[in-house]
Amino acid sequence: MSAVGVLLTVPRRLRTGRRLSRSAYVAVVLLAALVVAATFCSQLAPYGVHSVVGDPYEPPSASHWLGLDDGGVDVLTLLLYGARISLLVGFASALVSAVIGGVVGITAGYFGGRVDACLMRITDVFLVIPDVPLMIVVAAIWGPSLLHIIVVIGVLMWTRTARVIRAQTLSLRERGFVQRVRQMGASHVRILCRHVLPNLAPLLVASTILTIATGVFAEAALSFLGLGDPTEVSWGSMIEDAFQRSAMSVGAWWAVLPPGICIALVVLLCSVVGRSVEDSLAGSDRTVYLGPRSFRIVRLPSRSAG
Amino acid sequence: MRILLRRLRSAVITLFVVVSFNFFLFRAAPGDAVSSFAVTPLSAQARANLRHEFQLDQPLWRQYLAYLDQLLHGNLGRSFQTAQPVSSILWRDLQNTVPMVLLGTVFAAVMGTLLGTMAAWRRGTFFDRSSVGGALALSALPSQWLGLVGILLFAGVLPTSGRVDDFVSSSGWAHIVDVTRHMILPSATIAVVLLGQYVLLSRAAVLDTLRQDFVLAARAEGNRDRYVLWRRAFPNALLPMTTVFALSMGQVVAGSILVETVFSWPGIGREVYDAVLGRDYPVLEGAFLVLTISVLVCNLCADLLYAKLDPRVSV
Does B257 touch chain A (CB under 8 A)? Predict the structure, then answer.
């Protein structure tokens, strides 16, 4: 069953959730547009990614909307090509961390006891280790390459997913329908695949979308320190180039601002979508809040506003 | 006391795991602690000393024990680039990093908590929505990029690189002013990056407190709104915020790599960057260890602080 299939079967079982907010739909559309733009960057880009089309740091003009970089390459073109690598790293590393976090979380939550204690101890250790320095250390030893970056980021970002999934699995395990199929003699594999996993899918998706943002962020950090693939353009490497080749002292804001704004946009969109999915799932345990100003009973939009 | 001991135990276990991980990770790096000294050719005697200290000619498990032993004596090896002891390099760096990071974090914590509290009090209003939106936007900005934007905006007004002005040797009061001026941009970058988090967290904490019975009781007593918010709700919401502060301190020291690189601030983050460029593994290894320890210490402080402030948590 494909991931989309799992997602579509869910609403029949878990109808407690509200619908997604309107801003989440807008964010999904924008995110999809970015992915499409990144996929077809070679068709969409106005110039070649290596072609020198003017003087170094030429300011924005009608033919070059975002100006040129230090080598005389069109910044808009670089931005489109950079989207490909940045989004690829973000999505791929989020997928890696979803698999690891999902397996750890489900195993810990479903089997409990010693397994749970052991896995959670490991998760705690990973949670404490400062992740950016660790990524830097591993990437520095392993050498710069796209695959290495994806693996390094993915392997270090799964802790949040694991905790969320574990908590949800713990509560699912005690629900009536899981208890019933267990008493009917279903095997662990069957219970997990047919009954637990489909109910976890939306949460896993939400958590993965939130992780994409972290992945894009981490890629930018690693590329900035020169640990990305030196042959590929990404938003992180664009910021690095601007920094290394003194775009600031020339005052070439057009080489600095666009990649950072793109990263921030992706991070924002991902967090809007992810939180909205999470909130719509948490709909059942909404708390009532006594507003101190007006003494009316107000419904809280979400339990964790942070 | 039991909780404290348990925390301490888990911190020690984590530290042990990290130290072991560190050891084996860096054995995977090419070369060993003596092979690749770049700048200064090390004398044969010094090489032999290092080899003996870390027992590099022994099997791996003996090396591991020697590593632990040297670590307990504060010996982290010598830098490939300068041949100085790593521990003294890192100690010097840490003294530069901590004040800069502390300034930024304190500023972000104070401003963020105040903004978040007001947003929570006026929840649902334009002020609330715009400060939450602004906070989300701020926390989405990459810090290295924000630093570059700061340089673009303030180049010429404020110094953008280094810790002191290299061409003017100053002492006493002038020196302090010079360092402070250099500190403004990196600290401000850290503050802006952190501000969003503090706004969101303090808003959530205050909202949670406003829901409590004692706030309702305070209102029922006929107190003014301002009194209820700042004297009853706010101090209680501050409790979780102190923990957040201590926790984030550790993460910020670790996350200062990007900001220090942008501003050439001679701290531990900049040292990591230089070590990455020069493939200076002993420094990288030591810096990673120091960063992890600083996170662990801050976590421990957070637990202690919380227990001290909140008598409901018995230590």
Answer: yes
Residue pairs between chains A and B whose CB atoms are closer than 8 Å: 149
Does B215 lie at the interface with A, CB-CB under 8 angstroms?
Answer: yes
Nearest residue, CB atoms, A239 vs list B132, B145, B295? B145
Q: Which of A136, A271, A293 sits opposite B272 (nearest CB)?
A: A136
Q: Using CA atoms, how far apart are residues A30 and A34, in angstroms rounded to an integer?
A: 6
pTM above 0.90, yes or no: no
B209's CB contacts (< 8 A; 6+ apart) are B215, B233, B234, B236, B237
The residues, ordered by sequence, that sit 6+ positions from B193 with a Cβ below 8 Å of its Cβ are B108, B138, B139, B141, B143, B146
- Residue A236 has which token pair? 């992180």
Contact of B10 with chain A, judged by CB distance below 8 Å, is answered with: yes
Query: ∠ CA B25-B32-A141 to the nearest 5 degrees?
Result: 40
* pLDDT tens for each residue of chain B, 315 residues long: 677 788 888 888 888 888 888 888 877 776 665 666 655 556 667 777 777 776 667 777 778 888 888 888 877 877 877 778 888 999 999 999 999 999 999 999 999 999 999 999 988 889 999 999 999 888 889 999 999 999 999 887 888 888 877 777 777 788 888 888 899 999 999 999 899 889 988 998 999 888 888 988 988 998 888 898 888 889 888 888 888 887 787 778 777 899 999 999 999 999 998 888 887 888 888 898 888 888 888 888 888 887 778 777 654
- Between CA B299 and CA B305 the distance in angstroms is 10
Task: Return the structure tokens found at A35.
Answer: 């992915």
Task: List the single residue in A134, A224, A305 with the smallest CB-CB distance to B204.
Answer: A305
Mutate to test the interface with B, among A149, A224, A256, A269 (most CBs of B within 10 A): A224
Nearest 5°: phi and psi at A133? -60, -40
